[in-house]
Amino acid sequence: MLKRLRVNNRIRLPEVQVIDENGKQLGTMRTQDALQLAREKGLDLVEVGPNVRPPITKVMDYGKYMYQKEKKEKQSGSKRREQETKTVRVGYKTGEHDLRFKAKKVDEFLEDSSVVKVELTLRGREKALAHLGRKKLITFLAKLTEPYIAQGEPRRSPFGWVIMIQKDKRASSKQKDNQSDENKKDTSKTNKSNTDG
Fold this sequence. Notes:
Elements: E1 15-19, E2 25-30, H1 31-40, E3 44-49, E4 56-60, H2 62-82, E5 85-91, H3 96-111, E6 115-121, H4 130-141, E7 148-150, E8 155-157, E9 160-167, H5 169-196
């Protein structure tokens, strides 16, 4: 939710500090004079620092300012949605086929830039085999093909073990660089064989 600022005639105090549209400090002046200055430039007088006396105001296009703020807020909101947390649960007795399927699912989530919470669940007597459960979780993580970084070590949970992982963007970009290097080598080999022939 964007905070609305006091603009033009809503600024009630008799004096204000003024910054012009280029960021230049104009000092303290009567509010009426500051309003007149803004009107002459076809702009608004906006209270940007209400907590000081006299308050700080800026000469600007308020409509444009609010539009840009809203745009930024929407973008940061979509970034937050991108960083959605997905949960994948693996049981202590989950079979090899299911493990491969779940590993593929984790890879997809990582590829979409989601944070993935991987839980290894221990039921009943399995809870006594906590150290083996941790090993099983590490073995499962080794099946992932997408590069990832862990947010700390696996930790105990009431249900077993849990670890948070996310895409390792640096490793992904290195992979891309290596692939493009390989492609360049292949192209140069092809060109060389063409010139030799």
